C-alpha cells in the first residue's frame, strides 16, 4: 500500500498561534480456473459443485456477473452410486424448462451452470431426477423420481467506507484557530487520497475539556470524518472494470484508509523528533481509531438471519421487498404484487 510522505520542516517556527498550527500541519501533513466438465468422469473439482438435497432447499449465492457453481441434480451419496437410465429435467425461477436458454449450461450428467448471473436470474431452480431400479432376480424395472430444489441468489460485495475518530490537544476551546486548524487538516487528508478518487465526508469536530489522571485539565478537539470511495470521477473505475466495481472501489478506499492511518501514525514521531516545543494544537498519541461501515447498491441488502451463509454479502432483495438507496436493508413493499428480484421501488 502506498503511504503518505513526510513533511519537511524540522522545528516549530516562531510566530503567532496560527503560524504554529500551520507549521504543525505542514510537518504532519490470477489465474481463473475453468469449470469444464468431462462427462462420465469422476468429480475432481468438487469445491465448485453444489449437491442437491431431497429433504430441503439448498441456498446458493452467486456474485453478480459471474458464473454459478455447478448445481448437481442429486445428493452426494447418490452421485457415488450407479444410475440406470438417468434423466434430468431442470425448471427455472419462471417455472419454464431451462433447456435451450442462452445463459445456462446443462450437461447430460445433470449439472447446471448459470452464466453471467444477474438479479432476474435469482430464484428457485428445481431439478427432477428419474432413474430405473432393476430387480436382480426378476429383472423387473421400476422408475424412481427424486426432486432437488436450489434457491439461488445474486449478491454483490458491500461497498466499504471508514469512520475515523482522532483527537488533538489545543490551548482553549474558544480559539478561532481551532476551526482553521480543522479546515487545514481536512484539506491535507483529502490531498493524501485524491488520486484514489476517495474523499473525506461528514467531517466535524467538537472541543471538550478532559481531566487526565495525575494531570490538570486539558482541552481537546474530538475530530471525526468518513473516508468515502465515491469522490467525483469514481465512476470511471466502473467503466474500466464494470464486473468488479465493488472490488475496485473497496481496494481504493482501503488504501485511502491505510494512507490516512500512516499519516496519523507519523504524528507521534514528528512531534518527538521535529519540534523543540509542542505546537499549540497537536495530535494526541494513539487517539486514531477506525470503524468499518458497509453500504449496499440499490436493489440489494444485508440480512444475517435470512442469509446466514452470506451474512456479509449484499444479497438481491427478494420479491415483495425493495431497496431504493445505498442503505443495507431491503424494505417491505406496501404493494405485495411486486414480484421481482432486485426491486429499487414498489
**What portion of residues is helical?**
10-25%
Give the SSE string: HEEEHEEEEEEHEEHHEEEEEE
N-to-C span: 43 Å
**How would you sum up the major sheet?**
6 strands, mixed
Summed up:
With 346 residues, the protein is an alpha+beta fold. 20% of the residues lie in helices and 32% in strands.
Supply the key terms.
346 residues; alpha+beta; 6-stranded mixed sheet; 5-stranded antiparallel sheet; 5 helices; 17 strands
Q: Which helices and strands, and how do they pair?
A:
Layout: H1 17-28, E1 49-51, E2 58-63, E3 70-72, H2 76-79, E4 84-91, E5 104-106, E6 111-114, E7 123-134, E8 141-156, E9 159-170, H3 176-193, E10 199-211, E11 217-228, H4 235-240, H5 245-273, E12 282-283, E13 289-295, E14 300-301, E15 314-316, E16 321-322, E17 331-332
Parallel strand pairs: 1-3, 2-8
Antiparallel strand pairs: 3-6, 4-7, 5-6, 7-8, 8-15, 9-11, 9-12, 9-13, 10-11, 14-15, 16-17
Helix pairs in contact: 1-3
Amino acid at each position: 500500500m502506498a503511504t503518505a510522505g513526510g513533511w519537511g520542516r524540522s522545528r516549530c517556527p516562531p510566530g503567532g498561534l496560527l503560524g504554529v498550527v500551520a507549521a504543525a500541519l505542514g510537518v504532519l501533513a490470477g489465474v481463473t480456473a475453468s469449470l469444464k466438465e468431462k462427462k462420465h468422469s469422476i468429480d475432481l473439482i468438487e469445491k465448485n459443485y453444489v449437491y442437491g438435497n431431497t429433504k430441503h432447499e439448498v441456498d446458493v449465492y452467486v456474485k453478480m456477473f459471474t458464473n454459478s457453481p455447478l448445481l448437481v441434480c442429486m445428493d452426494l451419496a447418490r452421485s457415488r452410486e450407479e444410475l440406470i437410465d438417468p434423466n434430468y429435467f431442470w425448471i427455472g425461477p419462471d417455472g419454464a424448462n431451462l433447456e435451450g436458454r442462452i445463459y445456462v449450461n446443462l450437461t447430460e450428467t445433470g449439472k447446471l451452470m448459470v452464466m453471467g448471473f444477474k438479479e432476474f436470474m435469482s430464484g428457485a431452480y428445481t431439478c427432477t431426477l428419474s432413474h430405473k431400479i432393476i430387480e436382480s432376480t426378476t429383472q423387473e424395472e421400476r422408475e424412481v423420481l427424486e426432486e432437488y430444489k436450489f434457491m439461488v441468489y445474486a449478491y454483490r460485495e458491500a461497498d466499504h467506507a471508514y469512520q475515523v475518530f482522532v483527537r488533538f490537544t489545543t490551548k482553549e476551546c474558544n480559539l478561532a484557530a481551532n476551526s482553521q486548524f480543522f479546515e487545514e487538516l481536512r484539506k491535507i487528508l483529502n490531498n493524501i487520497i485524491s488520486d484514489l478518487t476517495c474523499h473525506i465526508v461528514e467531517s466535524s469536530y467538537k472541543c471538550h475539556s478532559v481531566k487526565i489522571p495525575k494531570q490538570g485539565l486539558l482541552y481537546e478537539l474530538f475530530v471525526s470524518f468518513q473516508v468515502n470511495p465515491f469522490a467525483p470521477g469514481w465512476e470511471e473505475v466502473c467503466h474500466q472494470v464494470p464486473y468488479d466495481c465493488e472490488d475496485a472501489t473497496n481496494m481504493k478506499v482501503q488504501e485511502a484508509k491505510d494512507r490516512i492511518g500512516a499519516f496519523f501514525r507519523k504524528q507521534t514521531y514528528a512531534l518527538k523528533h521535529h519540534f523543540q516545543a509542542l505546537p499549540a494544537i497537536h495530535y494526541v498519541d494513539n487517539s486514531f481509531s477506525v470503524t468499518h461501515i458497509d453500504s449496499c447498491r440499490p436493489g440489494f441488502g444485508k440480512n444475517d438471519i435470512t442469509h446466514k451463509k452470506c451474512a456479509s454479502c449484499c444479497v438481491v432483495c427478494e420479491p415483495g421487498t425493495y431497496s431504493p438507496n445505498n442503505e443495507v436493508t431491503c424494505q417491505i413493499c406496501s404493494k405485495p404484487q411486486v414480484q421481482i428480484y432486485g426491486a429499487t421501488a414498489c
